[in-house]
Every structure is written in structure tokens, then in C-alpha cells.
């Protein structure tokens, strides 16, 4: 595969993840083709989440990831699988499957930070 094309695809994937984390719903629409499909796994009762069309995907993300939901993808290295040949042009998702992992904190009030990795470190 052409390394330049692979890098462009990675950038589209990164833009998608950044838009999800920052809740940039207008911008996220640009990463999908108009006829895109998405498979986001299953809901709590095992109901599959399969979406068709850019508008339906963006509406699902907007409705599901409101202000009370925090996502953290910014540091992740997106895995990319390309089905078919690559071509030049503008890249956007036509079909995507997102593997999700949810972490639920049952006892949030007792959550305490014990360190700050961004705090200034003492001089050596």
C-alpha cells in the first residue's frame, strides 16, 4: 500500500477520534461519505447498533455522547485496515466498525487522584 495514502487514512481516523472526544458534531460529518455505514457493537440489552448514512451516524453520536459522557481517544494509535485498492483523492469513511470498551465507575465520589503527571518535576 502507498505509504502516503495510509498516512492520509490515519489522519481521517485521527480526525474522527478527535471530533468524538471534543464533541465536534458538525466537523465529524466530514469524515463520512453520505452513504456511510457504521457498526458500533451492541446496546445494553444486546441490540445491535448498525447505522446507515452520514446523518444517522452523526445523530447517534450526538445523542449518545452528550455532555455527561467522557471519551478519551486522543492518545490512541488508530488501527487501519483497508478493504480494496487505494486511490488518490479525499479520504472519508464509507464503512466503519468501532470496537468499544466501556469503563463504569460505580463509586465516583471516592475517586481520588494521587499524582499529576503534568505537574512540574523537581530538578535533578
Brief descriptors of the model:
single chain, 124 residues, alpha+beta, three-stranded mixed sheet, 3 helices
Briefly characterize the structure.
With 124 residues, the chain is α+β, with helices and mostly antiparallel strands. The protein has helices at residues 3-22, 25-28, 54-64; strands at 32-42, 48-52, 93-97.
Protein described:
Strand 1 and strand 2 form a beta hairpin. The chain is an alpha+beta fold. The protein has a three-stranded mixed sheet with strand order 2-1-3, with helices on one face. The longest helix has 20 residues.
SSE string, helix = H, strand = E?
Answer: HHEEHE
Mean pLDDT reading: 74
- Using only C-alpha atoms, the radius of gyration works out to 18 Å
* Poorly predicted segments: none
Shape: globular
Lateral arrangement of strands in the main beta sheet:
2-1-3
Count of DSSP-assigned helices: 3
Residue fraction in strands: 15-25%
Question: Main sheet?
Answer: 3 strands, mixed
Task: Classify the helix fraction into a percent range.
Answer: 25-40%
The total count of strands amounts to: 3
Determine the N-to-C terminus distance: 46 Å
Structural class assignment? alpha+beta
Amino acid at each position: 500500500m502507498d505509504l502516503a495514502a495510509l498516512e492520509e487514512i490515519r489522519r481521517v481516523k485521527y480526525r474522527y477520534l478527535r471530533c468524538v472526544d471534543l464533541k465536534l458534531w458538525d466537523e465529524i460529518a466530514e469524515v463520512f461519505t453520505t452513504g456511510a455505514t457504521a457498526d458500533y457493537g451492541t446496546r445494553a440489552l444486546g441490540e445491535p447498533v448498525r447505522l446507515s448514512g452520514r446523518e444517522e451516524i452523526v445523530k447517534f453520536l450526538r445523542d449518545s455522547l452528550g455532555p455527561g459522557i467522557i471519551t478519551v481517544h486522543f492518545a490512541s494509535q488508530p488501527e487501519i485496515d483497508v478493504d480494496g485498492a487505494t486511490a488518490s483523492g479525499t479520504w472519508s469513511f464509507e464503512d466503519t466498525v468501532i470496537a468499544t470498551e466501556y469503563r463504569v465507575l460505580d463509586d465516583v465520589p471516592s475517586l481520588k487522584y494521587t499524582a499529576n503527571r503534568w505537574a512540574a518535576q523537581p530538578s535533578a
